[in-house]
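Human:
Care to share another protein and its fold?

Assistant:
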Amino acid sequence: MHTLSPFKVRADAAAYLSHKLGRRISVSALARLASEGGGPRYCLILGRASYLPEWLDAWLEQQTRPPARERDCPLTQPAGDKGKATPSAA
């Protein structure tokens, strides 16, 4: 019986990440990240970078940043309130 490997080659990993993010992640971007040491964990199988989905998910989680506080984000302020501190609820 032949079972499919859970590993994804770089092109499939890029498609997986693109689907999860809702924006395109290119194969070349993953290759660049791998060479710089900033991308998802991978291993070489027969000379090809191979990724497990949980490694890709973990990397995505590490890239997530908490949203800026509303008072620090000019897009959430009315036009006249930009730069003003909001009163604290003390």
In short: Strands lie at 8-9, 43-45, 48-51.
